[in-house]
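Blackboard transcription, Thursday session:
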Amino acid sequence: MSAAFLEGLSGVDDDVAAALAEPLIDHHVHGCFTGELDRAGFEESLNEATADPIPAFMTQFDSQLGFAVRRWCAPQLDLPPAVDADEYWHRRSTMTPELLARAMLPAAGVSTWLVDSGFWTDRLCPPRQLAHWAGGVAGEVLRLESLAETLLAEGISGPSWAQEFRARLAAAGPAVVAAKTVAAYRCGLDIDWSRPSDAAVGRAAAPLPGSPTVRVDDPTIIAFGVHAAADAGLPVQIHVGLGDRDLDLRTADPLLLVPLLHARRTVPIVLLHCYPYHRAAGYLAQAFGHVYLDVGLAINHLGVRSVELVAESLELAPFAKQLYSSDACGPPELHLLGAVLWRRGMARTLGRWVREGDWSATDAARVARMIGADNARRVYRLPADGPSWAA
Amino acid sequence: MSAAFLEGLSGVDDDVAAALAEPLIDHHVHGCFTGELDRAGFEESLNEATADPIPAFMTQFDSQLGFAVRRWCAPQLDLPPAVDADEYWHRRSTMTPELLARAMLPAAGVSTWLVDSGFWTDRLCPPRQLAHWAGGVAGEVLRLESLAETLLAEGISGPSWAQEFRARLAAAGPAVVAAKTVAAYRCGLDIDWSRPSDAAVGRAAAPLPGSPTVRVDDPTIIAFGVHAAADAGLPVQIHVGLGDRDLDLRTADPLLLVPLLHARRTVPIVLLHCYPYHRAAGYLAQAFGHVYLDVGLAINHLGVRSVELVAESLELAPFAKQLYSSDACGPPELHLLGAVLWRRGMARTLGRWVREGDWSATDAARVARMIGADNARRVYRLPADGPSWAA
Amino acid sequence: MSAAFLEGLSGVDDDVAAALAEPLIDHHVHGCFTGELDRAGFEESLNEATADPIPAFMTQFDSQLGFAVRRWCAPQLDLPPAVDADEYWHRRSTMTPELLARAMLPAAGVSTWLVDSGFWTDRLCPPRQLAHWAGGVAGEVLRLESLAETLLAEGISGPSWAQEFRARLAAAGPAVVAAKTVAAYRCGLDIDWSRPSDAAVGRAAAPLPGSPTVRVDDPTIIAFGVHAAADAGLPVQIHVGLGDRDLDLRTADPLLLVPLLHARRTVPIVLLHCYPYHRAAGYLAQAFGHVYLDVGLAINHLGVRSVELVAESLELAPFAKQLYSSDACGPPELHLLGAVLWRRGMARTLGRWVREGDWSATDAARVARMIGADNARRVYRLPADGPSWAA
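(Written on the board underneath:)
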């Protein structure tokens, strides 16, 4: 890991810088695109929230994320920092997906990628491929709604549905280290989080009209999935806060999860991303011994402003309850950026606290290691010998 | 434009400073007071939120806005920065409204004022007068609730009401560049935003008991106004977030507008002011190609803290989707302050990003120009030869 | 008051530093523990939110509050700043509660403590004891729910209940300078805040099954208590925002209090703590002439991040409407820390504003005195000769 993330900063303690340069565990990420993109497709992948084409009067490069791509990813393509968007795009468009991935991923300094393997499976590389390109190892995060959709697409429905769902969870290999729900996208978080009976699940999973594509948004099926994953002993990741426009941000508020947090206390529950509700999420991570959070995704979208987001995430949540993720999805720039921006945000924040005597350098370095990797290793029970379980 | 806004700051790149010194378009503002004020009246005009008199135990000068007035407006009256409140008031009270306006407005460095011409028409100068004093040009923002009240006051009601409302919109002159709704003040944003039928509008606009004053707060009439303005091709400004105490801040949350944003996509929709919901507003500006925002009004009320507000506004919203406004209303100090504080907030924020290598100076200067004027020129289709359309 | 709070900071104006070093009024605080603690008990007292034991995989020392204890309290025990948690605990565990209190409390530089005397009366020292150890004076804040519980425990119920409640309030001694409600913990703030009739209160205060402990959570009784306190002329403190896990943070939003703020305007209403709703609370303090706020409790829990919280609290609320509190409860470290962190946050914030020319040093020093003591003296009508009324 080069110390590019320190460029332009002064007064960051050496021990803190060294701790931040150590390999990260990206505990929630997606694969890279495997196919070519046109410029419109690339720009759309820089805007998590929109379902629209980028308006003709603008370029999505003119955003914090776009500026951060030009600043931090251009040097990986042998271009100067903050190179023109057109020039960046031109260089990028000459490269294959693999070349791009190989240019970006190793520079992220990530040793372990925990990959949501149930999204855009036709467009994104599988976990093993991501790890191979990056020079690390990968584990898998099982997306509960995708498993539910698989069962429905296979024609399973009715009374045996719940049983079969549990069987699939039980049969997941050792590389599956967590489950994830996108309830926020499908039905919102303001649902009945009590455990549904198998009979109720069976009724919700009624035979479908013969559509080849299924989109699960039934709260009974979704709540069931979370309980089944927790029963199977899997840590449960929950998407919270910002996301695409399908999501109603008002019902992506983590405070809506309180009934679930009370009901399910046997496995870690990890609140993903959280912006702009990261302060409320920090409160929950303090209030519940089994609740964790990250501020991934938003780190990338905030670009240079992620410094303040990272600092705001270091408020109520105990340091053992925080994790690093990029939530990168698609362009491998995002896998790199998440790591650069998190490290830079931590360096600026911790650097100042040490410099002004509020924190010791030893503590700052230790917290950097906890959030960067140690906490994830404990939450997901990752063996030191990653490859034995890796996807 | 003098560079007063840079006083006391160091390390702001010259190109960035120069870009920030260029003339602004204040895309949402009101007129100046045309009559004399006593001190109580002046102090009340420094408190947007209250309907109470300022309590006897305090002065509203003891607020961020009051401190900012003393800091940045005193020099326009040949007083030292941060002069005593009593001395400031004394000097100010010797001046006519016109002298005050001429002391403050030109110093704002604003070339174009888009003026809400439907509020306090008996107390505030009209757009043309504001522009004349300031040495710029003015366009008009048509306040939809005021138009509705005009129709009702004229005795129009029932079935023909909707038709007449549309006719008035169609007859608006070329100086009318946008419409505005204060739904947040009248009925809150948590209403049915679907298009009401003319019949429903006619029922809502039933004959009134013969009161000379009318306050429209009917959600059917208000939703109709927004649809009619959009049908007429006018950009729609929507008051969001902080405002006076009549407003229930809980129902001034921009996330309540999502149904409207989905339904009306043919004209720009501009979320005004937004504090403390500016991060959620930024999310909407990213999610919807036709949605814009500003953080006016709050900039003035936060005084020196507007630096952080301006920085927070530079998060999710693409840079082509952000605008400058003061929302100044009444004392011409507010028209000046909005411009000084926005420039100062941008200078401190962009200055640091450039200094630490996160942004290039070229990009920073370009974004300053976009938000300061270029975006507004595009959104409101302002001709280069302003005077031909100006009020 | 030593200037420990300035350590590591540079460029803080001398007058501002001197103003911040003056004695504070801690307008909302609890007593110190009178008994010994084991380490688990101590760590739990560093986590306001949780009802769980601290998980085995972590220590609550690894939090902003824990780091702040080690940084700022260790020197009071003749240990170096940021000493190891084990070493800190070891030294602390050799000391009696009184020795600890005498090590911490005087260093807080607080002249007057206004103590909630109705919570954990078996575990916390009474106001007079706190003041004695600290070398200051104490007033009392009457906890309305505790008074209600006392009446119920005495077997009072039914029609005479309201009358008796009023009689007890009227009989409160001169040391009782305010009342406080913990409605947020009991029923949430989203209740009917209109004044209940005595008959309705009597029905709510029906004879209880013979439980020795009573927990009042009936909204009629709670709303009645607030009205009765206001009728008695007592300022009313209202817990808002973060607190323990019993509290549903969604119903601890101060915007839910608007109906009460409209209805009761004859006494000061003080919003306590407020995080993460402190910006909305600032809006209310601007909107209502009788509304105040503090950001206590959160200051301690945010540790070094309290700098930003303090700065954020200096936005909409006029400076005459802000107060200092620690909300310390239990370990006397918390009574000290609140004062150190508030002073440090103010020093960093005001220091910068003065340095960059946004505020004058005179203004900054004056605002420090207003928030630190002067406002509280006015709100609670504290006589200059404290001891005559002190508990």
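Lecturer's comment: Strands of chain C lie at 24-29, 110-116, 137-143, 176-181, 236-240, 269-273, 291-293.
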